[in-house]
Structure formats: C-alpha cells, structure tokens
Amino acid sequence: VTLTVNYWLIKRVTPLLLIGLAWGQDCTASDDTPGITLMSECYSIENTTAIDRSWENLPGTISPGIGLLTNLTYLNLCCNQLTGDIPPEIGNLINLTYMDLHWNQLTVIPPEIGNLINLTHLDLKMAVTGPHTGDAIPPEMGNLTSLTYLDLSDNELGCHNYDWLGDWQTDNCNQHCDDTNECTAAIPPEIGNLTNLEALFLSDNHLSGEIPSSIGNLVNLKSFGLKENDLSGSIPPEIGNLTQLHVLDLKLNQLTGDIPSTIGNMTNLGVWDAEWYNPSMGGGGGQEADYWPAFDLSYNQLGCYEYDSECEPSSDYNSSNCCITHCIDTDACTGEIPPQIGNLTDLEYVILPFNQLTGPIPPEMGDMTSLHYLDLRYNQLNGEIPEELGDLSNMGMMWLYSNNLRGEIPDELCNIDVCGLDCNNSGNVFGGNYFCPPVPDCFPDYMIEGIGEYCNSYPDCPGGYTPIADPPPINGGHIYDGWCFYQSDLDNLQDFIDVNASLSGEQPIEIGEQNWINWPDSYGRLNGLDFSNENNEISIIPESIGNLDELEVVNFSNTQIT
After folding, report:
1. pLDDT in tens, 490-503
2. For the sheet containing 513-516, what is the strand order?
3. Which of 278, 325, 475, 489 is found 20 to 30 A from 169 (Cα to Cα)?
C-alpha cells in the first residue's frame, strides 16, 4: 500500500487543529461523548457529521470551536443573522462536502477555506458583506477542485477597508464604489482549477479587472453569472471551450472589444436545465423561470476598445460616453456580432443592447429558430436587415432601434407576427435608423412612423457636396443626415490615385484610413489621413494635399516616398 501525504494540507491544518483544541470539550453530547457548544447546542466532537441550523434567525458569530468537528460532512447555516469573520478554523473540516452560509452578515472569506478539498457545494451568496481586506476571493479557493457549485454573488467583494460605512454597509459600499474608482477585486486565475464546476455565480460584487482566460478550463460549466460587476477588457476567446454552458450572463459590466467567434461553439446555450436555475441570474431581484435570459451581454462597451474607468456615465445603464475613442466619431470601434452566433439554435433570448457593436446583423441569425426575444437596441449596427430574420417564426419581441441600419425593410419580416415585432405598440422597433421606403404593407402605421425621414440612400446635400450612398466604414459616421462629402476634398484624394499606380481602381473614399468631420461648422470635410498601413504603396504625395485645409492629422510612416 502506498501512502500519499499532502504536506501542504498538513502544514495548513495542523496549526488550526492546535488552535481549535484550545477550545476543548465544554459539554457532553446526547450520545455521552465529549462535545462542543455551538449556537447554544452541544455537538459531539467525534460523531457529528451534519449540522443544519438554517432559517433559525440565529444571531452572534460562528465559533472557532466548529473546527473541532473534523468528521463534519454537511454544514448549513444559511438565512440567519450571523456576523463577524468566517473563522479560519473552518479549514479543519476537511471532510466537508456541502457548506451553505448564504444570507448572513459575515465579513471575510479566510484563505483556509482552500483546505476543504472535498467540498462539492459552496454557497456564500449574500453571506460576506465586508468590508473586505486582502484578496476578497482567496486564490486558495483554486484548491477546491471537487466543487460542482459555487455561488459568491451579491457580496460587494470589491468594496474593502471602508470602516466608516456604518450599519447600512452594503448599500453605502455600493454607492462608494459607484462614486469612486477605489473598489478593486479580481477574479483569481486559480478559478480555472475548478474543472468540475457546473454552476458559477459571481454577480453583483464590484469585481474589476479582466475575465481570466483560465475560465476556459471549466469545460463542465452549465451556468455562469458575472452580471453587475466592473469587469473590463475583452471576453476571452477561451470562453468558447464551455460547450456545456446553458446560461451566460455578463450584462452590466465594462467589457470591450469583440464578441469572440468562439461563442458559436456554445451550442447548448438556451437548453433549459432547471437544476441550475438561479434567480440571481435574472434582472433586479431575479426573474421568473420563464424569463431567464440564457445569453445576455447588454449594457457593456462591446465594440469599444478603450474604456475610461474614471469617466462619469451618462446614466446608470448607458456609459457609451465613457468609450475613450468615441465610436460615433472614429472607426476605432469595430466589434461585430460574429456569424457563428447562428449556431446557437436553442437560444430563446439574445440580449445585446447598449453596446457599441458595429457591422451588419449576420444573416446566420435566421437559423436561430427558437428565438423569442431579440434585442439589438442602441448599438452602431449598419447595413440592411437580413431577410433571413423573417424565418424566426417564434419571435415574441424584436428591438432594432437606435442603430445605423439603412435600406428597405424586407418583406420577409411579415412572416413574423406583428406583435412579435412590437407587442407594446411603442412604435420604436425601427426608429433611430436610416430606413427608406417602401415599407411592407403588413406593418401598422404606428410602427413605421418616421421611416424615410433619415433615409440615407442619396441625401440632399448642399452645393459643393456629393452624396455617397454606401461608403465603406469610415470615421465620420453619418454626415449631414446621410453621407455627404465635400467634393473638393474628394478631388484632392483622387490626385493620390492618379499619381500612385498601386491605388489604381480605388475610389477616393477608400484609400488609407480617413477621418471626416461631422460637426456643423465643417461637416463633410477631411480631417485625418493615415497611410501608415498601406504597405509602402504610397510613393508620391501630390502637391494638392495642401488644398485639404481642414486636414489636421496626416501619417505617411512606413511609406517609401519618391
């Protein structure tokens, strides 16, 4: 027989046992064995294997003496009024498989919790109200490799060291985090060690930093909730490894960049699994099981590539003004909805509003025939509505307003119940876009009101300007209620084409990277021109560049000028 000794565990547990033994027997249990008094009851030190004192409104603290009950496998103290730290002696309970402390007013998660290597279920939701010190989520939790369920949601883990917050600690901490940039708590990369996890809930914690790429190791995960944090950076492409995932909720963060194409690997998104239903995954206060969005990335900055964390958002739910390089004024925001999203055929809800997503609506979304609710409001989506959306016969609600969509509304949308487009008669399904008549006959008047007002096929441009109906993505956005460009500037760009053979066949609007002004005094004027990415194709600079009198930035680096 080979005996494997876990020296790390012995090193951590032995001093805790010595501390725990200092408490010693203080009562005789009902089975006449030595006992320890906990929460006004006497428990056998040797024979106690389960404690369930949930929903008893218990006050006071968790005694360090609990560390003597080393044969304990089940501990449920949820839904009480316990305060103080979770004692480090909890780390003695190495046989524990189930621990539920949620709905208490405890403070610190001790690193010794990492000793509980047999835990399969750990629920600390609304249990650890802080203020927090050190690592709010101890990296030692990465040792809990047997866990299948971990809930740390609603703990304001990012709030720490604020002793002045008073009795209404959580509410004040939440306000403090909103008002300052001092709340920091990261998701430790060690979370990726928990490869048996099937449910992970970290919502409502003011967690900051990036989602670690190690999250892609959690290949057994079915439910993943990170909503209402301060997470930044991009969604790691490794998230596509989570092919068993049923629910992904990342709303109300500060995530930027692209929606990774690997999202298309997560073909179980939307498959209903009541075992892992968790109300905290829904909206404020939770949602009923029949409205549990399985894919929610709303209220982020997807498409924006640099976010100002010190910026004051324009509202609680719209922080688009905090994108450092504004998407409306530049082409720095290029995050698109990947066509691979069409693989997610079991999804009933796709919720992506209040981001900075650009590019077209992928026609592959027409393959998502289980879709009941599609919300793409308040993005920078362009192009036309794909006729394939007419295949979504189960649609219960579709929101497309406040984008840069254009062209005609396809007749195929008549295949969707009109109520499926706008059950609330709000008239805002298509508003805030640049659609042109004709409009399908199936739509009532209230739904098509205003269509054509900003039709950008060929806008009426003032003298000296030229309309371009379908320019490539450029920095200026919509100019003069459409695409109006100062003709003289276009002529000067044509001179570049005429004297550089490598540009032959291109249009003036297509060469280099361009920035066009869209404010009233100088709308439609060329403001920036960058040839640094043209692979040395520019060899001659025409003298007419001097006629571009609104040009402020020009870049010819990496070119060989003759």
Report:
1. 999 999 899 988 88
2. 513-516, 526-530, 553-555
3. 278
Are the C-beta atoms of 242 and 263 separated by less than 8 Å? no
CA distance 304 to 355: 8
Q: What is the pLDDT of residues 421-479, one digit of tens each?
A: 655 555 567 888 888 778 888 887 777 766 766 665 455 677 788 877 655 555 444 44
Q: How many angstroms separate the CA atoms of 67 and 87, rounded?
A: 9
Residue 414 to residue 393: CA distance in whole angstroms: 10
The pLDDT value recorded for residue 352 is: 94
List of residues 6+ apart from 523 with CB closer than 8 A: 479, 480, 484, 517
Cα gap 487→490, rounded to integer Å: 5
**pLDDT, mean of residues 341-368:** 94
Q: Which amino acid is at 368?
A: M
Query: How far from 155 is each of 124, 171, 391, 536, CA to CA, in Å?
Result: 8, 11, 43, 55
Give the whole-angstrom CA distance, residue 47 versus residue 321: 61
Residue 22 exposed, middle or buried by CB count within 10 Å (0-12, 13-18, 19+):
exposed
Q: Which fold has domain 1-128?
A: 3.80.10
Strands 373-375, 301-302: pairing is: unpaired
Is 531 or 1 the better-scoring residue by pLDDT?
531
Confidence band, pLDDT 50/70/90 cuts, at residue 286:
very low
pLDDT for 315-328, tens place per residue?
444 445 455 444 44
Q: Which residues pair with 35 in a beta bridge?
A: 27, 44
The single-letter DSSP state of residue 14 is: H
What mean pLDDT value characterizes the chain? 80
Alpha-carbon gap, residue 469 to 456, rounded angstroms: 6
- 135-142+161-340 folds as 3.80.10
pLDDT digits 0-9 by tens, 68-125: 999 999 999 999 999 999 999 999 999 999 999 999 999 889 999 999 999 999 999 9
Q: Give buried/exposed letters for 382-414 (b at 16+ CB in 10 A, else e).
A: bbbbbebbbbbeebbbbbbbbbbbbbbbbebbe
Q: What are the residue ranges spanned by the domains of the chain?
A: 1-128, 135-142+161-340, 465-555
Q: Tokens standing for 320? A: 């688009």
> CA-CA distance, 257 to 354, in Å (whole number)?
14
